[in-house]
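Troubleshooting: if your tokenizer reports a length mismatch, compare your output against this known-good record of 92 residues.
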Amino acid sequence: MPKDPDTAIFQLRLQRGEDGKLAPVGLDIIPCCVSSNIEGANVNEQNYNDYCPTPYETDSKEYMRVMSKLYGEYTPASQGADYGDWLASRAG
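Known-good structure output:
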């Protein structure tokens, strides 16, 4: 069972040019809970994860929390995970 219920779906949009090559034309980040049982995840209920990622409401505190983790700005209260250099470590 994950201790951190937050995840994100990255949706990359590609377009094929006349030459047949693919080029990126957009990227969406969709902050989600790892489960459709968001309430159970919030209280770390036993066996809450049903493996159905569920988007958080746009601009909700949960949505903003996921985005802050991706941007390396998140300071966990008690989860013990360090997200400080996550985004920088994946930059190309």
